[in-house]
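Q&A log
Question type: sequence-to-structure
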Amino acid sequence: MCHQSVGLVSRAIEAKGVPTLSMTSAHSITASANPPRAAFTDFPLGHTCGPPDQPEMQRSIMRDALELFETMEQPGIVELGYAWPALWKEGARQPVDHRTPRYDTPQYQNQDDQAAAVGAHGVRVACRAAAPGDVPRS
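Response status: OK
Response body:
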């Protein structure tokens, strides 16, 4: 469900007298949704309640978030103040290229790609550098 929908649903549920709490790692998006109550952790997306294999930290985050039902006196987003155990933001901003290295000679990402090209176009076209007129026509 998108963050905007979560804010709308939370407000509708709260209007019926049931308190809600959103957990988020996307502060600006959550702020635009304006939920009645939200707990923020500055963690990578998908890890709002903490890093994998750290159940003590995860339980602590959940306890602190649930306490907001008792301590928040007005709508808003509360930063819980936890720190991800490693520098993740710097790495998240670096593009990652998982492709194989590039060379001047023809190559395929893997054997399945090569087999598909040979099957579709024949070994004469698929396994060498393209020359004018080599474009397969369907």
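Response note: The chain has a mean pLDDT of 81.
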